[in-house]
């Protein structure tokens, strides 16, 4: 490659990186604007609640003694959490009863005469070969 081609390649890569950085910056600014808008909505809500409570107290309404029931959410009640799903109690009891009835088989490593660890299967094969 000639020096001119290398410079052109380098320049095009720098321009691509620069344009991608601008895209990311614009997306970050949109996210910040959304977060600030939500904070503003929450501040208005809490302010409105304070004003409503003051007005109800001023009129002598007995609203504090009445149990409050909020509306039930239409979607999922909780935000989706990361990580493994919690196991149900029924599944846990089934798993423990299975474990007590039928233990899992594990390979046991045995030491051979030369000091190397081998599995039981390999030991049996070695014994069969040595008898032949």
Automatic annotation (TrEMBL):
Its main location: nucleus. The keyword Nucleus applies. It comes from Drosophila virilis. One of its GO terms (molecular function) is DNA binding. Residues 10-56 form the INO80 complex subunit F domain. This is INO80 complex subunit F domain-containing protein. It is found in: Nucleus. It comes from the Eukaryota. Keywords: Nucleus.
């Amino acid at each position: 490659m000639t020096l001119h081609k290398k410079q052109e390649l380098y320049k095009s890569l720098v321009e691509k990186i620069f344009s991608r950085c601008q895209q990311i910056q614009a997306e970050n600014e949109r996210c910040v604007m959304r977060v600030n808008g939500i904070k503003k909505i929450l501040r208005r809500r809490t302010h409105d609640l304070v004003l409503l409570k003051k007005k109800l107290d001023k009129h002598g309404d007995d609203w504090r003694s009445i149990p409050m029931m909020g509306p039930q959410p239409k979607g999922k009640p909780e935000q989706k959490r990361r990580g493994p799903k919690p196991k149900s109690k029924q599944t846990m009891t089934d798993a423990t009863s299975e474990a007590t009835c039928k233990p899992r088989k594990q390979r046991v490593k045995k030491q051979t005469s030369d000091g190397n660890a081998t599995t039981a299967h390999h030991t049996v094969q070695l014994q069969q070969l040595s008898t032949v």
